[in-house]
Predict the 3D structure of the following.
Amino acid sequence: QVQLVQSGSELKKPGASVKVSCKASGYTFTTYSMNWVRQAPGQGLEWMGWINTNTGNPTYAQGFTGRFVFSLDTSVSTAYLQISSLKAEDTAVYYCARRYCSGGSCYSEPWGQGTLVTVSS
Amino acid sequence: QSVLTQPPSVSAAPGQKVTISCSGTSSNIGNSYVSWYQQLPGTAPKLLIYENNKRPSGIPDRFSGSKSGTSATLGITGLQTGDEADYHCGTWDSSLSAVVFGGGTKLTVL
């Protein structure tokens, strides 16, 4: 079945970097783009952007430029989110979600299980 | 501050029906398909409704979606305690060139 499995929780100090992985299985990885979504504690979902898994071209949402980088390793069907110069406000659960598009309609399905990134000194 | 507006919470008794609203503008809901996601406590979101009113396989017909103008609605009938979750609406915003979500609605089944 189609599945996204993310790397485990991370505890980082302010100023450090973190790299979250999202391994896809059950479908051809390069057929669908990958969304990244942030959920801060007790908050709603916030779209960070997506990466075209065929071309490697990333698209970043407003507020997620500069310190956030999407990348791929298509040989292992894995997408990555790297965040540098971490701040306390980056503490959140980060989700990858396949961007499924058909006939002009796009939605996120399935979602990874989420990766909790905690930034604390 | 989310682009789409949802009520923070709704509640109803087991067996009853509840609706959750999602309000937007002509640049998002008024111009694009709406999807709904169910997020059970401590878990990742899961697709519940896509293209305004379609259910993925495995989603019971107790869940329904509709859209009118710049608003969308999720309906749940025959409420069960297992339906307690956060529900999020999402769509594409052509002005922002971004996927946008509502702030989420917490459903309590009393």
Remarks:
- The CA atoms of residues 27 and 94 of chain B lie 5 Å apart.
- DSSP finds no helices and nine strands in chain B.
